[in-house]
Structure formats: C-alpha cells, structure tokens
Amino acid sequence: MNQLRVIFYTNISVSIFLFLSSLIIIEAKNDNFIRFPPGKMVFPPNKRSDSSDPQQVHISLMGKDHMRVSWITNEHFHTQSIVEYGIRPNEYNATATGEYTSYRYFFYSSGKIHHVTIGPLEPATTYYYRCGGSGPEFSFRTPPTAFPLQFVVVGDLGQTEWTASTLKHIDSKNYDVLLLPGDLSYADTHQPLWDSFGRLVEPYASRRPWMVTQGNHEVETIPIIFPHPFKAYNARWPMPYLQSASTSNLYYSFEIAGSHVIMLGSYTDFDSDSDQFKWLAADLAGIDRVKTPWVFALVHAPWYNTNLAHRGEGESMRKALEELLYKARVDVVFAGHVHAYERFTRIYDNKAESCGPMYVTIGDGGNREGLALAFENPASPLSLFREASFGHGRLNVVNETHAHWSWHRNNDLDSVEADHLWFQSLSTTTNCCHQNSQSPSSSTTHNDEL
C-alpha cells in the first residue's frame, strides 16, 4: 500500500512538471543567459542498507552552543533517539538522548521523527556524529562566535533539477548557517514529497545548520476535511522558538556571532493584538546593539515587490510590523514567495529611507512552479536590481560595521555572481543610531553601497 501511494504521488508531481515544461524558454533582456523552464522533479530513494538506519538527517541551532539533530526511521523498528558524537572520526566521547514523534496525514504515516539536542559544543569546530546507534557517520562544523560570519540565504527550494543545482553551488563554497524564508519541500499535502525532500537536502543540511521559517506551501490544510495547518512542518522542522520566548514554531529568533536573526510567520496572526506582534516587540526591545550590531529578519511573502506575481500579498503584514522593524533599525529583511531575485534600497513606508531596512526577495531556489518572469515597467526607483533566474544569496558579515551581500545566479553548470554590494550596519551609522526614530531621515543610496 505504501509503495502504491508513493507511485501515485510521484505521478502527480511528474504531471505537474510536464505541464510546466511546456513553457517557452525565455531569453534574458540584458545578457546572453538563457532562462530555462523548471527542471524535472527529483525523488532520491532511501539508499540506506538497513531500513532501521537514519535518513533525512538535518541539524539546526539550539542556543549559543547546542545543536538539534533530527532524522527519521521506519515506524516498525525500535530505534533509540540517541546521538553519539566527538571531534574525531568514529570516536564518540559524548552521547545525548532525545525523543521522537510522528504524525498521520490521512493514510500516510511519517515514521519516527527523532530530535536530539547535543552540546555544549565548541565554536568553529568539526564534530562527527552517529544517529540512533547505527548507520553512517555524519559531520558538521559549528559556527564561530566572532566575526566574520557567513550566511547562505535561499528561498522556495522545492526538489527539481534546479534545486539540486542550487544546492551544489551553495556547497561549492564554505558558509556557516543556511537561512530559508519558507517553502521547503512543495509537498502540498502529498506527504511522500517531504521524505524525498529530506533525502535530497540531507548531504547539505546534515553538515551545516539550516534555520527555516514557513511559507504558504507548508500550510497543507484541506477545508473541513483537514483543517490543521503546519502538521508536517512542525513535526519535521522544529526550530528553537522556546529559547527566544516564542510560543510558536512559526516565529522565533536566534543570535550568533554578533548577529540577531528574526524568523517571522507570514501565515499566522501578526496584527497588533496577536501573540506574534507582542513577541516581536519584546524580542526587538531586548537586543543589545553594542554586543549585537547586526539584525536581520526573514518573512515569506515580501513586503516590497515589483514583480507581477503575488502583488500585495505581504501588504497587511507590512502595515502591521514594518514600524517595529524600522524603529529597531533592522538592517535587512529577506523574503521568498516570488520566484525571482530583487534587491531594493533601504525603505520605510514606501519611501527611500537611509535608516530603514534593505529589502531582498530571494524566492528562486529551484521550485517546480517555475520563475516569475514579469516585472512592472518602468521599474520603481526603490528597486535597484531584479532578475528572474534561479540562484542563491550569500551574506558575509565581515565585522561590527560592514557586511557584503552577493546574489549568485545558476548559470547551467556554473554559479555566477550577478549582483553584490557592501553595506554598513545601522547600529554603527551615525545619523541612524543617534537619530530619533520617530522622524525619518533624508535618504542617500547607491546601487553598489548602502
């Protein structure tokens, strides 16, 4: 029965791909790069020799010196929720025990989803680990506790050939933490796609912490029949929300090496009476910008967007939360949802504002729905760079004052840096850190430096 369901869901996904592949190839406006339609869906099989061995292994940060290790095993086998780890291959001098959960979605059963927190861990150190007492050995490197610090930012991944290309390009250079602003597997209620996604990302997500927030494809509700949202997402990808005093896995924050990262929920309540609004206000108020000069936020639906796709879908959230981020001098707001890349200048309330956040849309990881090719013309003066191509971004926080952002286009076999700029932390920008945040300042911005 399980095998028949997998074949059924796979056929649906392949049908979607064949429809999308009928789209014509679009040629770039300003260069010779050809934008191909979405690649084929990929469904990595479980290659573990023993069905009790761990699969879909991934890690996430848990406080300043701990890591959560997550994996899945067959529901019919008794496997302990333990992780053995150490700083030398095949030598484990520490063991941690956790717990497992599972969920059902109609006729689908998830298997046992294990979560174990290990630590305390030393910074900038490679650890070797084994899950459940058997199976292969994995390794990861902990992030540093001081600058420089490098994030990878990529949204709307999915599981296509372009996704595989994006992940290989990401892995070609070192980084410390991956940030994903929603839309992971594109399972869309077809639960076996969560498993194939977990296998696809395991070689990468088992070696560097992935910090994610939810997108619309994680909601997975069916009116009346299945009204419970985020069931698979919450079970498979728990984030450290309790450590940041949040009451929901859909929004949280964490700190790492002088950077405070806020992961917001576009698909849960965010108005002024909501728990998310109150949590965000308290979270921002607790940031010490002397010790933590950088603040970044991630949402799924962008607040600023000149693409014709998803126009205005983030507007109500912007109206509710933008002032909080502006007054707190958040440096950058990353978003997904729109399947293209777009970088804006610093903005507040639809106007260029030198003390407002820079806004970046990066929903171009490789999803099955294809690229959002149509932008409004003429371009808004607030939009400094935009292109409908698959790719990923790198945020290199060099020191307390300066960071470098770059966007890397998937150019077939190569990854090409197509956009980049240096910018300064608002906490160290004189007219912003000492300015009364009630009154916006005059703005001066440039394409290559902010």
TrEMBL record:
Residues 356-412 form the Purple acid phosphatase C-terminal domain. Keywords: Glycoprotein, Hydrolase, Membrane, Signal, Transmembrane, Transmembrane helix, Zinc. Its cofactor is Fe cation; Zn(2+). The chain crosses the membrane at residues 6-26. One of its GO terms (molecular function) is acid phosphatase activity. Its EC number is 3.1.3.2. Residues 431-450 are annotated as: Disordered. It holds the Pfam family Metallophos. It catalyses: a phosphate monoester + H2O = an alcohol + phosphate. Residues 150-341 form the Calcineurin-like phosphoesterase domain. Residues 54-142 form the Purple acid phosphatase N-terminal domain. It comes from the Eukaryota. Belongs to the metallophosphoesterase superfamily. Purple acid phosphatase family. This is Purple acid phosphatase.
